[in-house]
Every structure is written in structure tokens, then in C-alpha cells.
């Protein structure tokens, strides 16, 4: 049902079923893996209303949630480099365990929400192109309003650093970073922030 590929290696075929809805891959020399792709083989889809969470387990540590899979999101790339617990004494050629747990999609969505990374396993028909376009428009409007407050008019062009000239003034690139951090924080605490801002 599942496959995985560690970057630079062959497709792994050592999938083990350890419970009715739980599967694992053993990842040899895991500390040398930068990224891993986990995917549905396409032969057996999830049953309607189900999806899966993907986890990583280092020896003598707790499971770490990496992300999820669904019929609509049948593959995902996860960064493993940097997941080694800080202060750990992971030795060379350590084997880690990649776990896949099939759960009701609501449970999977709740677990993914704890990652605060915007990961989502969208149900078919729950979002259409118009909604995506509207959200993108709100994000761009939020960005424009934010950075516009930082522009400074009437500065000689030859005194403006390269990459910081807008059509009508000077804009510090630091403001883009601050906007991104602020918006990410607001969306993490309130996923409906942009909708509320639009209706205010």
C-alpha cells in the first residue's frame, strides 16, 4: 500500500504491518538521510473518510509527527535532517523507524494542526478554485497594506540599495520578512484571520 524513497537511495520494499492500521519502514543509516518521500502505491487507496499520519522514531526517543497522506495528497516529501533530537547521542549507521498510521481523516487533520505548518488534507469539494483565488487576493492585499506603510517617498534613486526600489518609493526588504512572520503567527493562532480582517 505504501512506498518510501530516501533521497539518493532505491525504493524501499521493507514495509511491515505491525497492527491493523499501522505500518513501518526501517530506515538504515538514518542520520545520513536528508529527505524522504512517502507515497501511496496506487494499488490500494484509503477507504472513504480515512487518511494517514506519518511519524519518525529515533532509538530511545518518542515518535515525531512529520505530516500526512490521503487519497487527494498521495505523496509527500519530509525533511529528516534536523529531526535528530538535540543533545542526543545518535551514532553513525543508526536505524530509525518511519511509522504510518491510518486514521479517520478528522483525527489526521487534528494531528496535523499541531504542526502549525499549514499542512492540510483537503476533502474533495471542500475548496474550489474561486475560494483559493479569493484567499490569495486577501493575502496579497494584506501584504500590500503592510509594506505600503513602510515606503518612503522622495529619496534620490542613487541612494537606494539595489533590490529595495519600488515604483513610488523606498522599501526595506526586512519589512517583507516581518510581514511573513506576523501573518504566519496570526494564522497559526487563528486560521480565519484573513476572513475576519476582510469582513471588518
UniProtKB/TrEMBL annotation:
It comes from the Eukaryota. GO terms for cellular component: cytosol; nucleus. One of its GO terms (molecular function) is nuclear import signal receptor activity. Residues 5-116 form the Hikeshi-like N-terminal domain. Residues 131-196 form the Hikeshi-like C-terminal domain. Pfam families: Hikeshi-like_C (PF21057), Hikeshi-like_N (PF05603). GO terms for biological process: protein import into nucleus. Belongs to the OPI10 family. This is Hikeshi-like domain-containing protein. It comes from Rhizopus oryzae (Mucormycosis agent).
